[in-house]
Amino acid sequence: MKNGLKVLLLADALIDFSLGMIGPIYAIFVEEIGGDILDASWAYFVYMITAGAVMYLLSRWEDRSKHKEKFVVIGYAITSLGCLMYIFVFNQATLMATQAVLGLSVALLDPAFDAVYSHYVKAKHEASNWGAWEAMSYIVTAAAALAGGYLANIYDFRAVFAAMFIVSLLGTAYSFRLYKNRRYLQTE
Questions:
Q1: How many other C-beta atoms are found inside a 10 Å radius of the C-beta of residue 24?
Q2: How far apart are CA 120 and CA 117, in angstroms?
Q3: pLDDT band (50, 70, 90) for residue 182
Q4: Relative to the CA of 56, which of 39, 75, 110, 146 has its CA 20 to 30 Å away?
């Protein structure tokens, strides 16, 4: 496996872990801030529509960039900002703003991530290289779901959001290795 893939896998594992901490308990959080099932649905809608619409527009621009790694790093940084924003969510309006920021992060990150990851995939190892990413994502998100649940149960949602922010910052910081030393990444 190329070193570039290892960097992407570790950085993305940290980001997946941070976001996975809220997944299964998200609706409980929405209820805690005075929302209901429709508010949770609208928040998810804002996230998805922002991600989809902005991704459609930005991905064409990203195609023209020689350094897609910077979009990965910026996407991770915006993800960290979104995790931080959760700490300050006390009503539906701030929840929607947070979801829009996270949708923007995905829109910027995902096409660039896929392009950079594809660049480092070895010929004749496409299935195992992509399988490593898929497996990592599921396993890390499973562990994050438990960690987030335990943190919320023992402490509160603010502790979960603080942990999400810290872990996402670690992923963002690690992702800087993508373009600081590109020659290193292209070695086997």
A1: 15
A2: 5
A3: low
A4: 39
Task: List b or e across 107-125, with b for residues whose CB sees 16 or more CB atoms inside 10 angstroms.
Answer: bbbbbbbebbbeebbeeee
**Alpha-carbon span 149 to 74, nearest angstrom:** 28
List the structure tokens of 39: 């508010």
Position 179 scores a pLDDT of 75
- Residue ranges of alpha helices (H) inside 24-156 are 26-32, 37-63, 69-86, 92-120, 126-154
Give per-residue pLDDT as tens, 144-172.
999 999 999 999 999 999 999 999 999 99
Q: Which domains does the chain have, with CATH numbers?
A: 3-182 (1.20.1250.20)
Closest CA to 1 of 180, 131, 109: 131
